[in-house]
Input
Amino acid sequence: MKMPTHCPFCKDVMLTDYEQMWEVLHKKCSRRLGHNIEFVAEVHDNDTVDVIAIKVNHKKIIMWSLFHRTLTIKSTDALEYQLPFFEPELFSYPKLMGKLKTYMVFS
Ligand SMILES: [Zn+2]
Output
């Protein structure tokens, strides 16, 4: 997946952040109330997205590592667990959240 320039959910232009130390590019959409998404890509790697992180609330972040093909739920109470990996479909935020909830119940 190529680094997108616009948020897949609200089509806003995403904020870009360049981390010089790691030569990593971040693109974020965090101004909307309904969703908070971040894409991370290594600059050398043709801007191919490595990580997609969705902050569900102030306690929980969902991270897809497209390179390692892992799906991890991280929460502030130090709990971290893996879900079966699936490619995130980014056209509908509610649909994606619905799918995740199903996975969380059955894993
Ligand atoms: Zn957005």
User: Anything to note?
Assistant: Residues 15-106 form one domain. The chain has a mean pLDDT of 92. Residues 7, 9-10, 12, 29, 32, 35 surround zinc ion (CB under 6 Å).
